[in-house]
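Figure S4 source data
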Amino acid sequence: MTDLEQRYADGEETQTPLGGYAALATTFAATAGAFAVTAWRRGVRLPDTVPAWDVALLGTATFKASRLLTKDKVTSFLRAPFTRREREGSANEVMDAGRGTGLRRAVGDLISCPFCTSTWVAGGLVGTYAVAPRAARLVCAGLSAVVVSDWLQYAWSLTAQKAEE
């Protein structure tokens, strides 16, 4: 256990990979900084405002992309090196948890948590929106359409259940 982890644990054993979390936070900040510098050097003009509709579109797309990356069975191959399956969830989702130690565990914790992953997804989508707003809106519209489809699937299933009763 590192000194930082020991101080964090206050004398108790901990599985929290603080060094790995610090590496991930540093990576995120460095990537955002590199993007900002590159955009500035290339003369990218950032929007003065972001319309509420675009915020809603970005938010819905961030939600769906985060769920796809962290909970979908089909994307398990991305998480497998860093996570272990804890259980099957509802709606064909899975519950994974980080495995290993250090950076491997930190990455596993990140990619099994939709709330954690959403920050990274939002960063990518907002970066795309700043550089290529039309392309970002198109991607976000596609992901948002999947959210609408999901809700329609749930409504259809609920209606079918009621009809069978």
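Figure S5 source data
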Amino acid sequence: MSITVTTWYLEQTAPSDLGPAAEPPAAAEVRIVRAGVPSPEFSHFLYTAVGSDVAWTDRLVWSRQAWEEYLHRPGVETWVAYERGTPAGYIELEGQDEGVVEIVYFGLIPPFRGRRIGGHLLTWGTARAWDMADRWPDRAPTKRVWVHTCSKDGPYALDNYRRRGFRIFDVRTSNEK
């Protein structure tokens, strides 16, 4: 049995494209922190905790060494949202050539969805994509931030990207088994 999967590719081409989300209530004690020490175990935890119910599988086969090599690449950043000290989700950025930054992964751990954390985390992470050259002096200033999402992702993913100012630049449909 195969399913039809639609993938949307979205982009921003200027920092002014970003439409910020409202912050979660102060009582939620949400904070966003960069994981400054690359940790394969922590990144694997985030990947599986966020992606287990939305069919993220490509990195499940990565060895510790593969995680280590990826996380130590210049321009790879993981920003983690915490609610009252508990990891709630993350956004992973990858600086690419010619001032391009990809939002490689973004999402919340299931119990934290629907609590106004996702839009806030996406706003924060997108802003960090735009100012990435401030943290990586050898990088060109960001000219474009892009992301892709598909019909297997959460039901609000595409709308969240669009509300944050991302515009669709390509759509592809495929059949998966």
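Strands lie at 3-12, 30-34, 76-83, 86-96, 100-108, 144-150, 167-176. The longest strand covers residues 86-96.
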